Fold this protein.
Amino acid sequence: MTQRKRMDRREFVKTTTGATAAVALGPTILRRRQQKTLKILQWSHFVPAYDVWFDKYAKDWGTAKGIEVTVDHISLADLTTRANAEVAAQQGHDLFQFLSPPGAFEPQVLDMVDLVREAERQHGPLIDLCKRSTYNPVTRKWFGFSDNYVPDPGDYLKSVWTEIGMPDGPATWEDLVTAGPQIKAKHPEIQIPIGIGMSQELDSNMATRAMLWSFDGSIQDANENVVLKSDQALAALQFGARLFQAGMNPAVLSWNAASNNQALNARQTAYILNSISAYRTAQDNKLPVADDIFFVPALKGPRGTRWASEHVMGIYAIWKFALSPDAAKQFLLDLIAHYRDAVMASKLYNFPAYPGSLAEASVPLAQKPAAGTRWLEQATANDPFGSNPPNKLRPISTALQWATNIGHPGPANPAESEVFDTFVLPTMFANVVTGRMTAPQALDDAHQQVKRIFEKWRARGLVAGGAGDRA
Amino acid sequence: MKRVALYAAALGFIAFAGFPFYWMLLTAFKQNRDLYVGAFDTQHVPWIFNDPPTLEHLRLLFGQTDFLSWVWNTLVVVVAVVVITVAVAVPAGYSLARLSGRWGESLGMGIFFTYLIPPTLLFIPFARLVSLLGLQDSLGALILIYPTMTIPFCTWLVMGFLRSVPWEIEEQAMIDGYSRLAVILKVAPRLIVPGILTVVVFTFTLVMQEFVYALTFISSVDKMTVSLGVPIALVRGDVYHWGALMAAALVTSIPLAIVYNLFIDRFIQGFTMGAVKG
Amino acid sequence: MIARRSWADREDVLGAAMLAPALAYVLLLVGVPFVLAIALSFSNAAAGSLSFGWVGAQNYAAILADPIFLRSLRNTAIVTVGSQVLVVVLATAAAQVFRVAFRGKRFARFVLLLPWAVPVSLAAIAWTWIFDSTFSVVNWTLKTAGLLHGWLYWLGDPGLALVAIIIVQAWRIFPFATVIVLAGLSSIPQEVVEAAIVDGAGFWRRLFRIELPLLLPVVAVAVLFGVVYTATDLGVVYILTGGGPANTTQVLPTLAFQRGIQGSDLGQGAAIAVFLLPFLVVVAVAMLRLARHTEVGAK
């Protein structure tokens, strides 16, 4: 029995081919000879087929390594609660997957630098969007390991937009304002011509950020100074109010993460900002609307800027109190090495954090990222999962040109995470469209809240900036 | 005329209480394309099946989730919590009502007030405690924590209940030569039965309802209780499996309502006597 | 005689022994965590670091200056009072109906008990679907019946959203209150009622002058119960509106949860949750007083 275990160890070290990795991981391996289990917690994936694949992959991986792997799934909205409980208990899972940057938990997680280096050595560079979501430049710590990001394109009903003379869907934010009344006139049964949420949930968080950035505003600058209060942000906010008037109704103020999908699939809205999961659900349920759903990249603002947030972003963290950190690290490296399977299992929902991991093994390292990107382009141009026409996913393959992290243009950090998790931006927009505040008031209100949050985290030494904060 | 008014009123109350359940029933068997139809469409009547009903959602609930284990776990937790609560709260209530004199009342009140501490406040300290005891991710955590909510309330309830039970029966037994302890062991239990029943129903309700602690302490899907497992497994972020969710709500509440219906009179007897005299 | 008095007859010993387990449970498992939680509210503890940094009353100062907190305090009061008023009215009325024998009463009582039996998390999800502005069956029915000319955005309009929350809270508590009131009715001495009838009192007079005053203690207990259930409840608001639109329906438990757990500011979350306590204690004392007082007076 002991003999076997030792064999596994040797095999384990062998699989981490690089000398760097062996040196980095060596000590931990020796210290934790007893380990036989690996516990993973992650969300219930929006594409259920991914969970089926992942659970089997994890089980098989464990069997091959002589490690008992368990995977627990909980819903996205409960992840933070669960993480809090595990930290308070100082006990829980070895691998914990967050869906947005877990900045606040930075002091509780292992630095992933060795793992990122090793993955980059095997597959080529990590994309910038993921780096900025997992690396804190202030503490120089990698507080997470990203395996994927998910693009957040616009989903629109082609038949409806064709009738109003825009068969390829909107290209700018202004197009939405133009289209709203026209759709209303042609299709009175469509309750919410433009379905962009402004409520306390994930999609609204992403959509309001996209609006802010495309109007050249942002919460923080590249150096983590709070710059929310700006003419650009004010313009974005006023635009939001106009858009609400033109094509939305108060339903969007109460949406949860499922509402825009339901509305689109019931043809109650003609445009939403969402990942492709809404479309995949329509396909799964064999709803005829599936054939009418098409995609557009992020919309352009008044000066041509276009940014969208990533829809979600898979970020694995290993707790400092994890019992099997080395197995967890190895699991992640192996997962990245199998990422083509993961992308397919998620029905092209997950996009790789390391594009090179999608390339054939034979491709030399330097060419891997390009080869991987090419593969992804081909896959999205010819969707193997029953799209009609098969190339309708093509627009999302350009996601890297317009997807960014929630701290844009700076890094993700605990303050940005708290702003995100307490829904400051959607609330700011909702305050204006409900007429509770004027745009300047709502902006100032949000700015002061954001500043308080940033100052709190700066006092803990986790966030930089401050000198350049606007008043 | 009076009869008509009576039936009309009864129907009104049934409609208010029961309408969501009718809606659950409908949703549990409706095809998705029958479900996702905007309310602007006056031609599409949402109150009936416009497409043939389907068993698809029930298959999802029973075939692809651990629903039956959740039911079992809930029962295990309920039974354990009931046993602990009865074993701890009933003697305490008796002691406060019969054995502790004047300070018993204030002490009973003090214990009752701990019931008012909101769960959101105790969440983090409890997480710590549960891990210290090594109970993370086990039903044991719930069995340990739920009595913190049931014991204060039930102690107070039993105390009040006993106050309304005449002392003469026990007194007579003592005159007959029973020791004080023998009275407690042999005579008192018979007197407290409705009170105990109330404790049981109350505990049942609480365990069925609780969500926050269950979410905190249980992470393995096969160890969840119904109130946690169902939303966790069937609300997949941006997809609500409405049919299966509604089916689960129905399947859990109907048997329970039948049981409550059977015991309601005795529950009420225990509850009103206990609470009003408390 | 005195010599034979063993410990089995000593009330103080027996009393202490029987009380000890409950007292120990409450002190260890509620008392200690409670003190910890209070300490938390005076600290800058965050999700990522559990070290207590004493910050005095800073968290309290911060939330008291925060309009969202004040709003949630107000909402907690509105939802609690609103739903309990509704509960009392509905329960008293329903009890009047259900005290009379009629055909199908058993089934009716079963339906009445359903809201009490369903787990609140699932019930709230069902109501979310019923109130979904886009798919609302309520709107469809009103519209088709010609009663609705505009459109009701149940959860999207701040006022209506509060109404929806109150409806759901009342819905899940009134069955329980009804059975309590029913029991209270059945315990009213028959002579009192008969005497009133002989005096020529009609239904309303009898209800308001005789029965309701006698029911007061029972109703007070039902209300106390309802208040605790409603004021500490996280699930209904969290699932129905998430506190939106624009934080206009936040109540204390949801705000504490959002700030403390989701937003990782444990200290502030604890401070917000602490505010529930005095509120509940005041209500509890008042209701218990009412229950006891009237009872004594009635005798």
